[in-house]
Design goal:
Number of strands: 13
Helix content: 40-55%
Order of helices and strands: HHEHEHEHEHEEEEEHHHHHEEEHHHEH
Strand order of the largest sheet: 1-9-8-5-4-2-3
Bound molecules: pyridoxal-5'-phosphate
Shape: globular
Length: about 400
């Protein structure tokens, strides 16, 4: 049976082979990758790194080292985002604090952010969930007013823009991820971008001091790359999606990841894909348009709000189904007909035990984030999706909800 994976990047074996060859010329491929990411982000500084969470730990450490007030050890994050975000904060020796999420935009609730207690906040983070860059200007101006740093977490949003300005370029520094479900894929990997500032010189030093990717990490990632390239194909993915060694679709709070440079062969593959970024995101946008058209006015289905001037990258297409039983049924049925619908991150961060233990009482009530966690359904957008994706999803939803 054909099965369209929940998320991913169309990667050909050819790209993997060429990427590995490019990686032999490490200096020039790193230069090329940085050039593409500078062009996409519009920022002058770029460093590739072993993962976005590694980059986050490095950036937060650099931010901390530039602030004289040692009590500023809190990082304010959306209450519904990837679990790696609070993990990276803990790894940096800092404390997560939560800001509620607006279920319509899936980004920070700007009113809640305005009312947050900033007295010990070091930095505020965006999420650009599913590649939709909502509220970035508001977060940036609130951070500026409050005199705290902003890190624009565009892990899922490489190539998304707001009025022409790139997701990842708001605030003081930005992050992109090259993990398996993101916009481009090197199995693990990511990049930091930054504008000219005291922070960027500090980051330059911090990244220079990192170690090379271990031989073992590099080998594992390089072996997984051609496997990923082959298995993402709809004719194969259905059979293999449960293979545990691929770690597909799992989200865990883990602070033990390596923090190192990205390996040379992975840099080569990143260049191969980054050069095709506009094409890859173009396919995702077309699929998002197809889903929007097909699911409009469908009972039970709430489409995401996309702000004026926002051009998402759509790592996935998020809808909400308010009724809990209907949502479970839809996810089960869409998967049964070969469409990788998922319930995304299972909980609001206030309900993840490792995070909850670190939160003040005032951060435990996150009604917006809890309803997102209970209602979200993500749909695939990648280039392997069929041209009648919208119709298939619509029919699937109608078949099970009537
Ligand atoms: C995936 C993701 C991260 C972490 O990226 P890695 O490269 O897997 O470390 C951080 N933030 C968000 C919003 C993500 O989706």
């Amino acid at each position: 049976m054909t099965y369209f994976a929940p998320a991913g990047t169309v990667l050909h074996l050819n790209d993997v082979a060429r990427g590995f060859c490019r990686g032999l010329y490490a200096e020039s491929s790193a230069t090329e990758l940085r050039a593409v990411l500078r062009r996409v982000s519009g920022l002058p500084h770029c460093w590739e790194i072993s993962s976005a969470r590694a980059g986050m730990t490095v950036v937060l450490g650099a931010m901390r080292s530039l602030v004289s007030d040692v009590r500023r050890d809190e990082v304010l994050i959306p209450a519904y985002t990837c679990y790696s975000v609070p993990a990276a904060i803990v790894r940096a020796g800092l404390k997560p604090r939560l800001c509620d999420v607006d279920p319509n935009t899936l980004g920070m609730d700007v009113t809640a952010l305005r009312n947050a207690d900033f007295s010990r906040v070091l930095a505020v983070l965006s999420s650009n969930l599913y590649g939709i860059p909502n509220e970035l200007s508001e977060i940036e101006s609130i951070a500026r007013e409050r005199g705290v740093s902003m890190l624009d977490d565009a892990a899922q949003a490489l190539g998304a823009t707001v009025h022409g300005r790139a997701a990842g370029s708001f605030g003081d520094a930005g992050l992109f991820s090259f993990d398996k479900g993101k916009i481009i894929c090197t199995i693990q990997g990511g990049a930091i971008v930054a504008r000219n500032s005291a922070l960027s010189s500090r980051l330059g030093t911090a990244v220079d001091e990192l170690q090379a990717s271990s031989l073992c990490e590099t080998l594992v990632n390089c072996i997984k790359l051609p496997i990923y390239a082959v298995l993402l194909r709809p004719t194969l993915y259905g059979a293999v999606q449960r293979l545990p060694f691929l770690g597909l679709g799992k989200t865990a709070f883990d602070t033990t990841y390596p923090i190192s440079h990205l390996s040379k062969p992975q840099i080569g593959v990143a260049v191969q894909l980054a050069q095709r970024l506009d094409f890859l995101n173009g396919q995702r946008r077309v699929n998002a348009e197809r889903l929007t058209a097909a699911l409009q006015n469908l009972r039970h289905v709430v489409l995401p709000a996309i702000g004026a001037g926002v051009r998402p990258a759509f790592a996935r297409f998020p809808i909400r189904i308010v009724d809990a039983q209907a949502r479970r049924d839809v996810i089960r049925h869409l998967n049964a007909i070969g469409i990788g619908a998922t319930a995304s991150y299972p909980s609001c961060l206030a309900d993840v035990p490792e995070v909850r233990a670190l939160l003040p009482q005032s951060d435990l009530s996150m009604p917006g984030a809890r309803s997102v966690a209970a209602q979200i359904v993500t749909l695939p957008t990648h280039g392997y999706c069929p041209h009648d994706l919208g119709e298939r999803v619509r029919r699937g939803i109608l078949e099970c909800l009537g």
